[in-house]
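Quick one, T. Sequence first:
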Amino acid sequence: MDLAKLMGQGGGGSAELWSASATIEQGALVISPLDKEVYRRVAATGTSATDPADDLTNYVAASYPRTTSLPIGYTLPHIYPDNVRGVTRTGQTNIAQATRTQVLSVTGRGSLLHAGAWRSANQGETAGLRNEIWADGRKLVEWESTAAGGHYVTVLGASFKVGDDLIAAAGAPVVFRRSLVIWITPTYRAWTGSTEYVTYSLRTEA
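Structure tokens:
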């Protein structure tokens, strides 16, 4: 990102604080009162009632990569719950089948690098999980994983097996400027809090 341009040097124009009553020229830079980030108006010159941080129609982010959607993930067979490496685990209580539950909530600024879960199931038994990632109030992905037996669900990032270990790796970061929330909904069978867990890798900013 060319910060000199964003600050009005080199012919890029200065960024002024956005307001709903102000007429903003097409291509002009504004600062969002909500998250203090810089956005560029791509729509025709005019006004808008929605803060640029939440306006995906009239503005694009100029000072950070704003993610608006994510691809679905995948599952890997993995029967060793203690051998998932490289992530933080969030222990959960028991969750009834079909009960939507918030498992991670972060307020502030940062980047989500990996999100996943380990599900236990007997050989031949199917366990499902509906996964949701929300950033700054926007739902980026919602998909349901299903697999038989013990397995690891990769929602964001990557995972691969090395012997008996499963390595959870970072992917392209999801940058958030106000909030990050992850929801899960167990399907096919309930979530067993004593053995199953959610994983994540997170970087926070001041």
